[in-house]
Automatic annotation (TrEMBL), chain A:
SUPFAM superfamilies: 2Fe-2S ferredoxin-like (SSF54292), alpha-helical ferredoxin (SSF46548). Belongs to the succinate dehydrogenase/fumarate reductase iron-sulfur protein family. One of its GO terms (biological process) is respiratory electron transport chain. Residues 149-178 form the 4Fe-4S ferredoxin-type domain. PROSITE patterns: 2FE2S_FER_1 (PS00197), 4FE4S_FER_1 (PS00198), 4FE4S_FER_2 (PS51379). Pfam families: Fer2_3, Fer4_7. This is succinate dehydrogenase. Its EC number is 1.3.5.1.
Length: 247, 237
């Protein structure tokens, strides 16, 4: 396949940045999207040009490190991570626009890499849960109803990639936060600090400069892990309960 | 997850009532007041189909609500006060969150698809501004100013309605406004249930979305009937 790529280039956080156009020939439909960029980078290296910076780590769809806004969709046209997206999702001769996540809370570091440490601080603000340390407890000592366990597991699949923020017209991180809140809130271990956790995480979210949610739903459509919108309702409910309890 | 930098620090002394979600809860609560109001208002308007006397009697009954416990028009003024307060809260929160959203993404995408969004949801803010302008005009038209665009009398509610909607362009303005109201409610009613934390499963979300659509059609459609039937000459003096 032959492709035309419009890629955002920016030397560092202070640079204004601009779109640059590249041609790639010889792309195999079996390549992953990141392998396609690797090939382009080898090409740039050979020509003594600065390679394009982009994030990746596991390349297995489980770590949340890869990103990229591909033709206006986070992680591209399929419901998966960019590392698991394959070039067979595109056609020979296509033009592909590649941009970094755009959010004030995710400043661009270089090219397509953004700083997502705001997510780390939201998690950090959530704080600890009260569990006994030491030897592992007997698994049956704390019964968890099946449906609660399933919901907690499903939302715990959030990999913190930030696609929800990238897609959201308000630049809100509500889907991410909702996933984390629901994950612990469904389990007995998450109960003692439930009110303070949601209060602190939401305050940190607002402090980082993420926008407020208006329930548009582009986040859930973009999420590679299919985190459903109901976690945002859960987040809102937990915050409302915290207010009732005087937080 | 990402590179550590010397960015913002952890918030100390967080208050749930100072959050963006709290603003949304206020919007949902004030929105709920509006929903109740527009439902009743629409029902009242349909009295126009019962003719001159029934309509004007209804208008007078509204003023006698709660008498003699309350003074004449007392209950009406309480309702008005609640509505004005709700509007101030609703618009204040909308403006604050709008400003915040603009700051949350200062560099726009060159290419952006809106997968998963319905048109109504992306129209909420500008649609809301349109509704606000409409509300001001509407109050001038029928409540405060009592403008009769045909130049006729303004002291008879039923006749004022008939005169107004016999004027084609006024009917068009109202129908456009009702389309806007329908869109605002289509997203707003579902959004309010979500903001209040009532849609914690796939099933309840679908139910909320379907109910929002139905209610929006009923309200916007119900309001549109009187102007259309006046213009068509079915409702007349
Ligand atoms: C008859 C008048 C109105 C009704 C019935 C109404 C109703 C609602 C409802 C139920 C919501 C949902 C709250 C939530 O998301 O939790 C909402 C949201 C909103 N309203 Fe209104 N509203 C009205 C007038 C206005 C006006 C005058 C504005 C003016 C700026 C406005 C702007 C907004 C905005 C920006 C939202 C947030 C969007 C969102 O949550 O998705 N509304 N409205
Ligand atoms: S909710 Fe989905 S899109 Fe958002 S950070 Fe988690 S995995 Fe990524
Ligand atoms: S690189 Fe780990 S999820 Fe894509």
């Amino acid at each position: 396949m032959k492709l035309t790529l419009n890629i955002w280039r920016q030397t560092d956080a202070n640079d204004a940045g601009a779109m640059h156009t590249y041609q790639v020939d010889d792309v195999s439909p079996d390549m992953s999207f990141l392998e396609m960029l690797d090939v382009l980078n080898e090409d740039l290296n050979a020509k003594d040009e600065e390679p394009i910076a982009f994030d990746s780590d596991c390349r297995e769809g489980i770590c949340g490190m890869c990103s990229l806004m591909i033709n206006g969709e986070p992680h591209g046209p399929e419901v998966t991570t960019t590392c698991q997206l394959h070039m067979r999702s595109f056609k020979d001769g296509d033009t592909i626009t590649i941009e970094p996540w755009r959010a004030s809370a995710f400043p661009v570091l270089k090219d397509l890499c953004v700083d997502r440490s705001a997510f780390d601080r939201i998690i950090q603000a959530g704080g600890y849960i009260s569990v006994n340390t030491g030897s592992a407890p007997e698994a049956h000592s704390v019964p968890v109803p099946r449906d609660d366990a399933m919901r907690a597991f499903n939302v715990a699949t959030c990999i913190g990639c930030g696609a929800c923020v990238a897609a959201c017209p308000n630049g809100s991180a509500s889907l991410f936060m909702g996933a984390k809140i629901t994950h612990l809130g469904e389990l007995p271990q998450g109960q003692p600090e439930r009110d303070s956790r949601v209060t602190n995480m939401v305050a940190q979210h607002d402090h980082e400069g993420f926008g407020g949610c208006t329930n548009i739903g582009e986040c859930a459509a973009a999420c590679p892990k299919e985190i459903p919108l109901d976690v945002i309702s859960q987040l809102n409910k937990d915050l409302r309960t915290a207010i009732k309890h005087g937080h | 997850m990402a590179i550590q930098n010397s960015g913002p620090t952890l918030v100390q002394g967080a208050r749930a009532t100072q959050s963006t979600i709290f603003l949304k809860i206020l919007m949902a609560a004030s929105g709920a007041v509006f929903i109740a109001f527009v439902l009743l208002h629409m029902y009242g308007n349909l009295k126009a189909f019962n003719g001159h006397d029934a309509y004007n009697e209804y208008a007078e009954h509204l003023r006698e609500l709660g008498t003699p416990m309350l003074p004449h028009s007392g209950a009406l003024w309480i309702i008005r006060a609640v509505l004005i307060l709700s509007l101030v809260v609703h618009v204040y929160c909308a403006a604050t969150l709008w400003k915040r959203a603009k700051k949350a993404r200062t560099v726009r995408y060159q290419v952006k698809k809106h997968t998963g969004a319905i048109f109504a949801s992306r129209m909420m803010r500008w649609g809301g501004v349109t509704l606000l302008l409409f509300i001001i005009w509407h109050l001038l038209n029928f409540t405060i100013g009592k403008v009769n665009v045909t130049g006729g009398a303004t002291n008879d509610p039923y006749n004022l309605v008939v005169d107004s909607f016999s004027t084609w362009w006024l009917t068009v303005i109202y129908l456009v406004a009702m389309a806007m109201l329908g869109a605002h409610l289509h997203h707003g009613i579902w959004s309010a249930t979500q903001t209040l934390g009532l849609t914690n499963s796939d099933r309840t979300r679908k139910l909320a979305k379907n109910s929002a659509f139905t209610l929006a059609v009923v309200i916007a459609g119900g309001f549109s009937l009187v102007p259309i039937f006046v213009l068509a000459g079915v409702i007349n003096k």
